[in-house]
Amino acid sequence: MFTIQYRQEVRQRLINNAKNDSRIVSAAIIGSYAHGKEDRWSDIDLTFGVAESTSISSMIDSWTDLISNEFDGITLFDVKRENTIYRVFILPGCLQVDLSFSPVSEFGAVGPHFKLLYGNQYEKAQPRSLPIQELFGYMVHHILRARFCMERNRLWQAEFWISEARNYALKLACQSRGLNIDYGRGFDDLPQNILDLFKDSFVKKLNKKEIIRSIQAIISGLEGISEEVKELSVKLNHIMYELSLCDNNIIAGT
Fold it and tell me: Is the separation of the CB atoms in 196 and 210 below 8 Å?
């Protein structure tokens, strides 16, 4: 595995390369390092503002060659948001490097974890927080899909939807407490009594009876998340009851 020193060296070399690249007019560090919470396993996150005369695609190609030639890096995937392209690389020692490139006129913070290194940044619209009701709606949808997949004997798919439903239940708990809901980042910061509500919601054996038991465990934990979630759950008591029913055919099918 990569060392902290190696990560620091790679990050500094990338920043130096950016400073020497006339096509890059602004640069920033994003992610955990930008707000002093980098740990042993953190990756490298850098974002660049590109001169208007240079295409983003040509910058991506150029820097991919640099990562490959100088660091033996391999491209994992791209994410595109409007005119910004993010490319994720893996380097020897399992060091992840995330680089993003934006036209300089659109370069700026998306979220709070942004530390400008040089150049200018512009005010950008910040992503909205999902309302509790919307998160709750997604969770109910995922429970519904889990139940119907089970009825179709699509048990692997049912387990997928149960995991998604549990994730959204925990997102509800995070949102209710001002914790980060993205990629499970706030889950481990939830109070233990909240996590305990869902500790029995994992599918332990792939059969219909166990799928139903997991659905019941998620539903039973909802009212303990917050008063707002409890109110939403009460409104759908009749739906939740139907989704958690376990009839004799299901028991026989185990």
Answer: no
CA neighbor of 200 nearest in space, from 186, 184, 220, 214 = 214
Rg (CA), the chain: 23
Closest C-alpha among 57, 61, 79 to residue 69 = 61
**Low-confidence stretches of the chain (pLDDT beneath 50):** none
> Beta-strand (E) ranges in 22-92?
24-30, 44-50, 74-81, 84-91
The phi, psi pair for 172, rounded to 5°, reads -60, -45
Do residues 15 and 46 make contact, with C-beta atoms less than 8 angstroms apart?
Answer: yes
Element (DSSP H or E) covering residue 84: strand 84-91
Q: What is the CATH number of domain 132-252?
A: 1.20.120
Provide the pairing of β-strand 95-103 with 44-50: parallel
Domain 4-118: give its CATH code.
3.30.460.10
pLDDT tens digit sequence for 85-108: 999 999 999 999 999 999 998 888
Q: How many residues does the chain have?
A: 254
Structure pTM?
0.84
Q: Where in the chain is the domain with CATH 3.30.460.10?
A: 4-118
Residues of the chain with CATH 1.20.120: 132-252
Residue 114: φ, ψ to 5°:
-145, 120
For 221-252, b/e burial (b = at least 16 CB within 10 A) is bbeebbeebeebbeebeeebeebbeeeeebee
- The 10 Å Cβ neighbour count of residue 23 is 18
Q: Residue 28 in contact with residue 115, Cβ under 8 Å?
A: yes
